[in-house]
Structures are given as C-alpha cells and as structure tokens.
Design a protein that fits this description.
Length: about 425
C-alpha cells in the first residue's frame, strides 16, 4: 500500500512528512522519527512541529512579555532554552552546524524580549511563539545529519509568504509556490544525494519579512501547502493514534478506526473540531488530488487511514467531536430591535479582529449567539468592544459536542448529566452546547 513502512520505490517521488509535537517530545521520540524518515526513499520534505508542550510554554513566555513582567519573562525564556539545549547535548552535542544555528536563534529571541513589548498582541505572539518550530527543526535536522542522512534545514519564514494577519495569516499561494520551487525543489534538483529538506510547520512571513503564524496546530496546513507547491505524491502525518478515529480516545471509550474517508468528509470533521487534522489542511490536497495518510509513529508498519477522493465509506460510522472550554456569547441590540444582517456583519468584524474562532451560531429575532474559542487575554477587550453597542452575556468553559452521522448513535454516558444550552440538528449532524 502507498505510504507503508519501509517502502522503497523504484523511482523517486516527492513525499511530505509531518511530525507533530508528541512524535518529537523527547530524545527517544526524535530518534524514532529519524528512523521512520530513514526508512523511506527521498526526496522527502519533513515538516516538524514544536517539541512536546513547547508552544504552551512559549505562550506563557509571551504572556509574561506583554505583561511587562521581566522576571517571569527571563525565567520562562531560560527554562525553554535549557530544555532544548539538553536535547541537543543528548542527541548530537556540538558537532554539527545545527548547534550554531540554535545559538543564533536563541540570541535573536533574547534581543526581541529585551525590547519594549509591541502594542499589537497578535504581532508579538507570532514573533515569540514561532521559535518553537525553529528550534524543533534545527534539532531534528541535526539529528538526521548525525545519523548520516543527507538533510538540509530551511527557514519557512523565507518560503511561505503570507498576509500580515498575525496569528491567523493567510497564504499568498502564487508567491509561495514560486518560493518553494526556487528553494526546496531547486535544492533537490541541484543536489542528487539530498534525502530530506526539514522545515517548520505553523509559520510564514510577510512581504516585509515579519514572522507570521497560520493558526494554532497549523503545521498540518504547512505540510499540505508544501505538498501542493511541490506537486508531491503523498502526505504522511505521523500521530500517536493508529489513524483517524471516530472519537478522541482520551474522552471516549471503544473508539473505532476509520480506514478510509473522503476529502469532503474529513473537511467537515476538521471544521467541527476533530483535532487529528487542521481544518485548512485538506483543500490544497484535494485541489491536486494528493492523498493524505494518517499513520502511527508508535506502529509505523500499520496501515493507518487514507484520505482521498473515494467517498463510499463516509456514512458508515458515527463520529463524535468533543470540544471543551468553549465560550458561549449571546448578543442583542440594546434597543430591542431585530438582529439584522448589518448587525451580524458588524459583530463578525469585531470577532475577526479579536481572533475569535466561531464553531457554532444561532440567532432569533432579538439574539445572536455563538459558541467559540479565543485566547483568554483577549476576552475582556472583546466583551468591552461588543458592549459599546450591544447587550452581551457570556458563559465560559462550556462544552461543544458534535455527532456526525448520528443515526443510531448513543449519547455519551459521561455527558448525560450536562445541561443543554443549545441544540442544533441538520440532516447529518447533531450539535449540543453543554454546561
């Protein structure tokens, strides 16, 4: 089967691998990912997420920085750097160029943190949090080289061109394709022995050279961008699960693996919040009919799940998507007038600027409600902005349950005592906001 472990092709075809944070969480995991990469013929573009919980740690660093808490900023920075330095010492010490590149980027972030915080929270977020991917790829490429694999590190901040919508940057597809072909494809064409190009997920750059991010968990999206731009043969995303499951095994028992699913159904599941795939990942692959394989880095020889154009298996299994810690906001005009299209347009303009991700909407004559997620630091400014013109009520820490293909489904036992705040049903999807 295409995408199987230890596959050796008779001719070279471009593959794009994506290793998430869990697959490179420590030295042992990184060595396992290197082994998986070595088992495939090149050329391979390897996209690597930040190691383990590094993104969370960098978000804490960002929070300390924008709060102008110099002591907490310094302590958080040192802890993150020490963690990565320890991995370098354990994996390849000071023998490779990667060590010097790591030191250079550490110095760059240190210089940024010693400046006054920028007024734009989203801008400073991207400048700081992006270092998780830079450091993970420096370490991964160094480990490949130390294991005698011919690999080259490339900076996604020079490859993926985006808008200046910080934290949720939009890809400039035409320019990105030109940059990918003049860097990644050129490297493989000019260096016949080159096996891998290692680059970052999640990050890109504006025309002015500022770092941007593509949204949380955006490394899957980066992999599909690069696959589209290189006309890759396939994309393999390595996870800690055996493939796409019909529910999160951390939340539900007796989950079932879905062996095959269409692009369309996978896009629907990811939109509803299935965490195994980033919502924007599938469209570039669908456009070029590039199959996506979800495989287990714990059991690389297993088949996993294939996502492609075939849709015959889409309706055979109910899927459960459960998103915790959501925000329910109910908005109504202060003069009790109807909620009209111009109100909704204005509300969405405010939500967009605040970086709110809307997962569910419901409206009546006088109320418009959304279930959404956003960064906690931006909640108070959002409520204040909405309250200038509207009456606003909100509930924090609500849950959103989506049941896709709900025919003959069983409502999860663990959620039966929850209070239903909103219920929606369509032909194929059942949704609950719960508290």
């Amino acid at each position: 089967m295409v995408g199987s472990f230890k596959k050796k092709s008779t001719h070279l075809k471009m593959k794009v691998f994506k290793f998430g944070g869990a697959s490179v969480k420590d030295a042992k995991a990184i060595q396992n990912a290197v082994k998986i990469t070595d088992s495939y013929e090149g050329p391979i573009v390897v996209v690597v997420s930040a190691i383990g919980k590094t993104t969370n740690a960098l978000e804490d660093l960002w929070s300390a920085f924008v709060s102008k808490d110099k002591k907490s900023t310094s302590e958080a920075f040192k802890k993150i750097v020490d963690f990565h330095q320890k991995l370098i010492n354990e994996l390849f010490q000071n023998r490779f160029e990667a060590t010097h590149l790591f030191e250079k980027t550490v110095s760059q972030l240190s210089d940024y943190l010693n400046k006054e915080s920028n007024n734009s929270l989203a801008f400073s977020y991207d400048q700081i949090v992006s270092y998780g991917e830079l450091w993970s790829t420096i370490i991964f490429s160094g480990c490949l080289v130390s294991n005698s694999l011919n690999a080259k590190w490339m900076d996604a901040r020079k490859i993926i061109r985006t808008s200046d919508h910080f934290q949720e940057a939009r890809v400039n597809w035409a320019v990105t394709k030109e940059l990918v072909q003049s860097s990644i494809l050129k490297a493989f064409n000019n260096e016949p022995l080159l096996r891998c190009v290692v680059t970052q997920g999640f990050i890109g750059h504006t025309i002015d050279g500022y770092t941007t991010t593509l949204g949380r968990e955006g490394s899957d999206f980066s992999a599909s961008i690069l696959a589209w731009a290189t006309n890759a043969d396939e994309v393999l995303i390595w996870k800690d699960v055996p493939g796409l499951l019909n529910a999160d095994p951390k939340e539900f028992e007796n989950t079932v693996k879905i062996d095959q699913i269409s692009y369309k159904e996978a896009i629907e599941l990811s939109y509803f919040g299935a965490s195994v795939i980033h919502p924007k990942t599938l469209k570039p692959l669908q456009n070029s009919n590039i199959p996506l394989f979800l495989k287990s880095f714990l059991d690389p020889e297993s088949e996993g799940t294939v996502i492609g154009s075939e849709d015959s298996a889409d309706f055979k299994q109910a899927s459960y998507i459960y998103k915790k810690n959501q925000l329910l906001i109910s908005i109504s005009p202060k003069d009790f007038s109807f909620i009209l299209e111009d109100h909704i347009s204005e509300i969405f303009g405010i939500l967009s600027k605040a970086g709110v991700k809307v997962h569910l909407m419901q409206n009546s004559a006088l109320n418009f409600s959304i279930c959404a997620s956003m960064k906690k630091t931006m909640l108070e400014p959002l409520i204040n902005r909405l309250s200038e013109k509207f009456s606003v009520k909100y509930n924090e820490q609500v849950d959103l349950l989506t049941i896709r293909h709900y025919k003959n489904h069983k409502f999860p036992e663990k959620l039966k005592d929850k209070k239903v705040l909103i219920k929606q049903r369509s032909r194929s999807t059942l949704r609950y906001v719960l508290s």
